[in-house]
Design brief:
two-stranded antiparallel ribbon, about 25% helix, binds acetylphosphate
């Protein structure tokens, strides 16, 4: 693990640092062969600091149960769970079989092999499509033992509601960078380098309240509409300049859905492929947010243990926030 000196990280305005790298990319900042991206901002010192935030022994699970979305969003496959009996061995017992498991059927980190930048025709750090297809480059295994640090929640949904300006999470509406900054200020929370940033948009709570028919209607990729954070260059510059290690939200795509796959400015491209910044989607944040509102502490230890899937494209976060 390369030692990170936050004072020496180039500012967004100074990017790119590698010759011929795309505009607004950090390619080369963590090394020419780096496959970890912004998760490099999670340091041993940061883990020790995060552990000091554990004060009341409360644990909040941040993932949805498998198959929580019925059917899964974006037309993804549901998981088939079979209890495989040992009956034929004369034994009273079972194994689990999970068939057609799409690692993005519910809560997920999008890995760095999930999408490449259309203009650069490359994935994070210049990795080619052939490398993603034929090797384990940029797989989620690179994060398997290092996704631990100080979590920070921005409850921008509650902030906007308190302001009398709620948005409809089930529509293509966006929270601006000013909303995020002002919510942080209202919470008295500081975004220090090396944060795993969680943003509560209110989508998950709104989705869970819908009827089974409404859920079915929302599942196809061309039928879903959902809120998210603004996909602007300023948003991404702010995340980078604050050395955010990852951003996780309770909405389907972090940015509002639908986003245009042909738009080079989409947040997915700006973050995953240009900065190696993990995007977390469909996280469970409501109970954590209630607790933060109650004790006024929006920071905690966050432990995420992605699947140890060599070459994996994405992973359920398997994450907990501990306060
Ligand atoms: C989309 O934006 C389609 O979401 P995901 O990152 O889960 O593919």
């Amino acid at each position: 693990m390369a030692k990170i000196d936050f004072a020496k990280i180039p500012k967004f305005a100074q990017l790119p640092v590698r010759k011929n790298a795309p505009e607004d990319s950090n390619w080369g900042v963590f090394g020419d062969d780096d496959e970890v991206g912004c998760v490099n901002f999670l340091t041993p010192e940061g883990i020790v600091e995060a552990a000091r935030l554990v004060r009341k022994g409360k644990v909040f699970r941040l993932d949805t149960p498998l198959n929580y979305a019925s059917p899964p969003l974006f037309g993804r496959e549901p998981v088939e769970h079979i209890k495989k009996s040992f009956e034929d061995l004369g034994l009273l017992g079972y194994d689990d079989l999970l068939n057609s498991y799409n690692t993005q059927e519910g809560s997920q980190w999008d890995g760095l092999g999930h999408v490449g930048n259309p203009t650069a025709k490359a994935f994070y750090n210049g990795v080619t499509n052939d490398q993603i297809k034929q090797s384990n480059k940029l797989g989620v295994h690179n994060w398997a033992d290092r996704f631990v640090g100080r979590g920070v929640l921005i409850d921008v949904c509650r902030y906007r509601e308190k302001q009398g300006r709620p948005l409809n999470p089930l529509k293509t509406e966006k929270y601006s960078l000013d909303d995020l900054k002002n919510a942080l200020k209202a919470q008295n929370t500081e975004l220090k380098p090396g944060a795993i940033l969680l943003v509560r948009t209110g989508w998950m709570g709104a989705y869970l309240k819908t009827t089974p028919e409404e859920k079915r209607a929302m599942a196809p990729i061309d039928k879903l509409t959902a809120c998210g954070v603004d996909d602007s260059r300023e948003m991404v510059g702010w995340l980078w300049d604050n050395c955010v290690a990852a951003i996780g939200t309770d909405c389907p795509a972090v940015e509002p859905w639908p986003w245009d796959f042909r738009d080079n400015g989409a947040l997915h491209y700006r973050t995953l492929s240009l900065l190696g910044l993990p995007l977390g989607e469909q996280f469970v944040l409501d109970k954590l947010a209630d607790d933060c509102a109650e004790d006024g502490r929006y920071e905690f230890m966050l432990v995420s243990v992605p699947l140890h899937l060599t070459g994996g494209i994405a992973s359920p976060p398997n994450a907990v926030a501990i306060k």
